[in-house]
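thread: overnight batch results

M.L. [08:02]
morning all. the overnight job finished for the chain we discussed friday. pasting input first so we're all looking at the same thing
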Amino acid sequence: MSNDTNVDDPPEDAPDAAPEEDRPAEQPERQGDQSPLEEDGDRRPDVDDPIDEFEPSSDEEEGDDIETVDDLGSTVEVDPGVEVDEEIAEDDLLGGLKIDSTEDIEVPDRLVDQVIGQDEARDIIIKAAKQRRHVMMIGSPGTGKSMLAKAMSQLLPKEDLQDVLVYHNPDDGNEPKVRTVPAGKGEQIIDAHKEEARKRNQMRSILMWIIIAVVLGYAILAGGQLLLGILAAGIIWLIFRYTSRGSDAMVPNMIVNNGEQRVAPFEDATGAHAGALLGDVRHDPFQSGGMETPSHDRVEPGSIHKSNKGVLFVDEINTLDIRTQQKLMTAIQEGEFAITGQSERSSGAMVQTEPVPCDFIMVAAGNLDAMENMHPALRNRIKGYGYEVYMDDTIEDTPEMRRKYARFIAQEVERDGRLPHFTDDAVEEVILEAKRRSGRKNHLTLLFRSLGGLVRVAGDIARAEDRDFTTRDDVLQAKARSRSIEQQLADDYIERRKDYELQVNDGGVEGRVNGLAVMGEDSGIMLPVMAEIAPAQGGGQVIATGQLKEMAEESVQNVSAIIKKFSDVDLSEKDIHIQFVQAGQQGVDGDSASITVATAVISALENIPVDQSVAMTGSLSVRGDVLPVGGVTHKIEAAAKAGCTKIIIPEANKQDVMIEDEYEEMVEIIPCSNISEVLDVALMGEPKKDSLVDRLKSITGTAFDQGTVGSAGGSNPSPQ
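M.L. [08:03]
and the structure it wrote out:
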């Protein structure tokens, strides 16, 4: 802003309408509808504006070196100036990067260049910024939705930003007038109005004291009526004091100030209540007697107004109530939205401004359930005038991606500003953890928030010991310290069961099998299943206890089909009792215990003991095929902690196993594709077991060829 602007001497004959050159340039039509604001130009009150001819300084505009979307591409150089050995890149955890620490890696300045793994979403954000389209991003938490929204605001042009002023309306005080001016000009207008009000009040004060002096002098000289003169002087002071508030009310209220904004505005309205999102009018307890605050001074902008010409980001959009979503939809469609009090009992509800511009780009985000409670018309507005994109959870493990993950660690260190840089072996350990957390072979996780938490904990450990670099040992300690609540509970359960001898990991027991389950997303736990056969009191039935959810109940029914097919026992005369031991209040959800239930029931029916050093997980089809499940890595590690030495998993999940080095020598992992293979490993007592397995092989077939099952498990196994 130019320093030579003279606001001390505003022109006396200010025009009643803004000059044509002061009006913001009309924006091109967006989304097919042109708002009334774009048709009519700036809204302004019929009051004198002492600074209409001032323009923002041109030297500030020339100093803004903002790159446009046209300067961006889809390819980002992730390792500028760093040597890459392509010969070893394929097998090297660093993708061939020749670095001593993350200090050698250059971090890009633009957020859009820092995005990793979400290439489709990144390209959509670039296109949406160029075309001013709305975007809805759906995916797991921590995949970079808010980062992409911020990156979008950096790609938008700055030159059309505006300040928004609210003026007193002399005709109707409850309907303040609204005016938009180029960014940076609002402060000049406010200062000029304040200076003019100050001069006006100064003249009024001089006049008041002159009148008071004349009245007092006349009262004394005329008849010595000093008391009467003082009373008259007090009345004059009150009159001037009361009427002076009218001049103060002429100073406008700037509700949106973009004078210092270097890029397009970005407003995170996640979880905002209606007033914070749509704007509000403060309550005023004084409504009369000259003590009230002018209505235009009580107007508060909402996030939709602050994000004008920028980006409005709303995560978990389904948490907004339906009425708020409807109003948000109106704001998107019209490009302007009047501010009024959101509380019906407040005096602010009497106030409603002229429409305030809110020409923003909407970036809505959420998990998969966000679409269920989202207003269909609001989603239609976003979809009809923009893009929908699903955020990936994992990405293929390539040398280029490993180099980007090394850069991600450098980004986290630079963003935090207090962490020591990571050595090359520490970076390798973090990348290994990214591979484990993906849950899929040859993939890396894209849940960067939790991975960034690991980086920060490791850096804090190194910083606490006042070391210059974060080492691999720090990362290993961080992995132990940054366990989730579920993992801590799982470890505690395992220890408690050992204390009370509820954990059995040797010998043979009829009808008891060590099943495996997952708590939360990354915490394995051993969950024993017991089966008992009893004479039926009526018709034979399968009774399962342990807080079973719908999917778990269905899996028990599928198991009963296998049992009925192979068993020589008349099940109409038997009741099969199945207990999920210590399932807890959370119950059992999912079908990954299907082979566990089948093994326990078959063991109880045939009186064949189950090897208690064996633990197992897997789903079961009605034909006897073992189908893939999720969380096998965490389940295997839980079984190892519990003392089991053999773990049965589905053949299709073999590619997903990425256990820690410390567990590899502790357990033997046995992939199985059919229930007969499971029983061959789990049951004890050779003569009876061999006879049972041979009989079962002859009557169960393979519903799927091996290639099909493997493909299904490798693509997207559901977490169980």
